[in-house]
Design goal:
alpha/beta, Metallo-beta-lactamase, Chain A, 7-stranded mixed β-sheet, 10 helices, 16 strands, globular, hydrolase
Amino acid sequence: MNMEAFVLGCGGMMPLPYRHLTSVLLRRDGDLFLFDGGEGTQVSLRRLNLKWKKINAIFVSHTHADHVTGLPGILMLSSQVERTEPLYIFGPPKIAEYIETSRRVLDMYINYPIIVKEITEPGAVYSGDGFYVRAFPLEHTKTCVGYTLEELDRPGEFNPEQAQKLNVPRGPLWGKLQHGESVVNADGITVSPEQVVGKNRSGRKFSFVTDTLYLPSIAKEVMGSDLLICEGMFADDCSDQAKEKKHMTARQSATIARDAKVKRFAMIHYSPRYNDRELETLLSQAKKVYPAAELTKDRMRFEIPYVE
């Protein structure tokens, strides 16, 4: 089962000619999940030729303009095709008012159900086949949450050679063993799944964190992520400004990645004061803490493989 993340926009505060506002699309096989929807989200979706028509759910960190102004266009875009499946939208208080007001003022014709759920406490907010999405609190100038999409453990690998040695005939009995059931072999002896199936294998974890003060608690929430996309808005010389505006420096973002022992870490939501060349300063400071730190760029793709 493939999983990959597409950065639709990596900028903060205001769009630049070469940098749309923050938005990430996560694709897990046929399921699509949008994390924030800043201005320019539609443009990157079309340029990447992604199948945006079937976005399952949208997860909004908070209702500042640079994270939601792309959403009305996404809602209208989705109504251009036949769709019967509901679109779920999650976010802190006021996200329902924002969606409803946009629909009313813009006279949107929506031909599919939109289900908006406001997050009032941390915990699982959405689930599907073999995964769930969890929200956790951040600290910004208004209510803000981070998200993790976590897969459940996968069954261990089935050993057909061992099954044959134990005289279990190929066919339905193998399937029962793989689904955790004991069976009786050709000799009338009971064979348990533990004899032919390895230990459970871990699923994958994607984490999205933006617009927050540095909090040690964030590392616990994103612990062990296969991919952490986290804001790194300012360089060290703007640490006072970061604190005042309740944002993080690149170094603080890297500290979370290090403490959480994530497998891959990339920064997002840069201040518009930094052009692409100047972003190397943020990257250099982050690498002093987490040497494998990366910068996101618009329309960048991250593959999230299983770790066997």
